[in-house]
Design a protein that fits this description.
single chain; alpha+beta; two-stranded antiparallel ribbon; two-stranded parallel sheet; 4 helices
Length: about 100
């Protein structure tokens, strides 16, 4: 889907999500100055091929999503680690209860 973000309206709907389709569309619209896209490498390639004059930027949604993932990831428990830590805790607790 091609969207004019300044006017907030859908401009075109491509038949597929291929590099070739997106690059062809961009080639037919040489006035495109900025391509806002997600982090998919295919869209980056399509923009390079179809609109080499355009600057590529990350859209707001994906920028915030990338930030959320980057902030959450260090605090996300690792499944195997948390189970092993829980088992060690229960083992220690059982020893102190019986002794």
């Amino acid at each position: 889907m091609i969207v004019d973000l300044e006017r907030r309206m859908v401009v075109d709907n491509l038949g597929d999500r291929s590099v070739a389709s997106a690059a062809r569309w961009l080639e037919r619209h040489p006035s495109v100055e900025i391509v806002s896209r997600n982090r998919c490498g295919l869209y980056a390639q399509a923009a390079r091929e179809g609109a080499p004059q355009a600057r590529q930027v990350t859209d707001r949604f994906h920028l915030m999503e990338n930030l959320r993932v980057a902030v959450d990831e260090p605090f996300r428990p690792r499944h195997g680690t948390s189970i092993a830590a829980g088992q060690r805790y229960r083992t220690r607790a059982n020893r102190s209860d019986s002794g």
